[in-house]
Every structure is written in C-alpha cells, then in structure tokens.
Amino acid sequence: MEKRNVTFRIKRFNPQKDEKPYYQEFTIEVPKGMTILEALQYIKDNVDPTLSFRAFCRSAICGSCSVKINGYPKLACKTQVFNELDIYKTDTLTIEPLDNMTVIRDLIVDWDSALERMERMKPYLIPDPEIVPETLEEESKVYPKELKKFDKQTDCILCTTCFSVCGIAKLDKNYGGPFPLARVYRFAVDPRDALKKERAKIGYAYDMWNCVRCNKCADVCPKHVAPVDAIMKLRGLSIEAGLKDNPGARHVYAFYKSLLESGMLNEVMLPLRAKGIKGILENLPIGIQMILKGKAHSPFMKPIKDHETLRKVMKAAMEVE
C-alpha cells in the first residue's frame, strides 16, 4: 500500500491558557485512503492527546467535522489526504477551524450564533390543518412534483460551512445566513405548511436582500444544496407577497421592465427605477464618463427584433415555479 509522510499544520488555540492562536506541525505516515478525520484521530491517539476537534458519524451526514483544509471548508470525514496533496501539489496540509464563529478550542467552533439565527426564523413545519390530518390514521401526501421544489434543501446537514464563508453573515448580524434562509424557502414551498409564501416575510425581516450572490455558499456545500439558489427563489416569493418597497426588489423589477419594453437592459434608466432620484445622483459621475466615452445609450430604446417572442418566453417563464 502506498504511503507518504505528510505534515499537518494545525491551528491551535485554548482560550483558557493561550493568549492567541498558533500553528503546530505534526508529521505522520499516511497510507492511501486515509481521511483528514482519521489523520486527526491518529495524531490525537498517538502524538498529542490535547488536540481537540469535533466528529461523530464519519459518514458525511452529521456535518460536525467541518474544518478548513488549506483555506477551503470541507468535511474531514469525507476528504481523503492523498486527494488534497494532489490538488495542492504539496506534502503539507494546513487545518484550521471554520470562520465567522467563535473558536471554543483548536478546531472546534461555537455553532450557537448560526443556529440561534435559524431558530428565530421558525425553520420547521407549521402544519396546515386543511392539509395535514389531525390523526395518524391518514397520510399527508407530498407528490413528486411538489417535493421537487424543495427536495434539494432537505439535504442540508447543518455543517455551517456555507455560513463560515458568507461575508454578509460576518458583517450583518441580522442577516439570516445561507442555510437558515434556505430552510425558510424549503418550508415556504412545502404544500403541508400553514405559512407557505408568507415565510418570505421572514426572509425579508432577516435581510435576505443583502445577499450579494457571490456563490461561495454553493461552492463549499458538501451536499450541493446551493443555498444561494433558495435565497433567490425566496426573494421572488417576497415580491409576489407584495414586499416590493426596497432597493433589491425595485432593481429586479427594473430589469424585468426593461426587457418587457425593449428586450434589452436599459442601464440608463436602471438607477432611476431602482433608487429614484437618489440613484441618478449616486451614479451621475460614472454616467457622465460613460456618455463622454460613448458607452451610454439613449434612455429611449427601440425594441429588438422578435421582441414579442421574447415577451412570450418571459411570460411563460414567470408561470413556471
């Protein structure tokens, strides 16, 4: 069996005795097929029993073993050492705790800040009495077509990797966070739920429009849930619920109206429609530069060829959830 000598550079911190975090290196012989979690367990069992990390199922289901491996959040139990060595073309791997959460000790972080936000957002089924039977004698059926709308979001294992890479979650303490907002959407489209699309108001209250669509949450999710997709759909539900008086919703509507009018994005009218006179004033300097360099078109745009066909496609798309 192939073996390699691998150095694990692990970020250590014990708040009871350490003034600040530090890195400690452990070099061990790793056989092919060993995971990061198995390597950490070997170090704890044979080299340094004080090394602290969190793990439970070893099956990529509980999400508790999430750590950063060379700066990228992954499940330690699912990630093989040799694969990471090949990716980074090195014999040294840096293991660190997740970001955006307080470090309890070494690689263990405090999930409370993330989970408390989710708890306030009611991420559980509130049964609709007209659909969910009161007794167990009857079933509450969800058909495949209905399940398809939220099936992806049910794969979330609460590993918090998406939360750890979200810049908005770090800056905005009221922001719900990727996986909590994805769970709000999951129940918003569940036919058994009593609140249904009203849940979009919860997403609105927890600053879902602050998401910048960087897609980092989708990049790091070990279950490919892509919370950003759910957040975008939740935004659409909020517009349907009448929550349009905000820059984000007006920005979306400005795009939509431009396409309806001409089939092209009217960038000149976009600031006015999204933010009113304030938008014009904010974008005036760059607008003048664009006009001087011939980059700005007239605000009065002629419809493109086959504009009516585009309008029909847009209408059909709006009718598909």
From TrEMBL:
<keyword id="KW-0003">3Fe-4S</keyword>
<dbReference type="Pfam" id="PF13183">
    <property type="entry name" value="Fer4_8"/>
</dbReference>
<dbReference type="InterPro" id="IPR025192">
    <property type="entry name" value="Succ_DH/fum_Rdtase_N"/>
</dbReference>
<keyword id="KW-0479">Metal-binding</keyword>
<comment type="pathway">
    <text>Carbohydrate metabolism; tricarboxylic acid cycle; fumarate from succinate (bacterial route): step 1/1.</text>
</comment>
<keyword id="KW-0560">Oxidoreductase</keyword>
<dbReference type="InterPro" id="IPR012675">
    <property type="entry name" value="Beta-grasp_dom_sf"/>
</dbReference>
<keyword id="KW-0411">Iron-sulfur</keyword>
<dbReference type="Pfam" id="PF13085">
    <property type="entry name" value="Fer2_3"/>
</dbReference>
<dbReference type="InterPro" id="IPR017900">
    <property type="entry name" value="4Fe4S_Fe_S_CS"/>
</dbReference>
<protein>
    <recommendedName>
        <fullName>Fumarate reductase iron-sulfur subunit</fullName>
        <ecNumber>1.3.5.1</ecNumber>
    </recommendedName>
</protein>
<keyword id="KW-0004">4Fe-4S</keyword>
<dbReference type="InterPro" id="IPR001041">
    <property type="entry name" value="2Fe-2S_ferredoxin-type"/>
</dbReference>
<dbReference type="InterPro" id="IPR017896">
    <property type="entry name" value="4Fe4S_Fe-S-bd"/>
</dbReference>
<comment type="similarity">
    <text>Belongs to the succinate dehydrogenase/fumarate reductase iron-sulfur protein family.</text>
</comment>
<feature type="domain" description="2Fe-2S ferredoxin-type">
    <location>
        <begin position="4"/>
        <end position="93"/>
    </location>
</feature>
<dbReference type="InterPro" id="IPR009051">
    <property type="entry name" value="Helical_ferredxn"/>
</dbReference>
<keyword id="KW-0816">Tricarboxylic acid cycle</keyword>
<dbReference type="InterPro" id="IPR050573">
    <property type="entry name" value="SDH/FRD_Iron-Sulfur"/>
</dbReference>
<keyword id="KW-0408">Iron</keyword>
<dbReference type="InterPro" id="IPR036010">
    <property type="entry name" value="2Fe-2S_ferredoxin-like_sf"/>
</dbReference>
<dbReference type="InterPro" id="IPR006058">
    <property type="entry name" value="2Fe2S_fd_BS"/>
</dbReference>
<dbReference type="InterPro" id="IPR004489">
    <property type="entry name" value="Succ_DH/fum_Rdtase_Fe-S"/>
</dbReference>
<feature type="domain" description="4Fe-4S ferredoxin-type">
    <location>
        <begin position="202"/>
        <end position="231"/>
    </location>
</feature>
<keyword id="KW-0001">2Fe-2S</keyword>
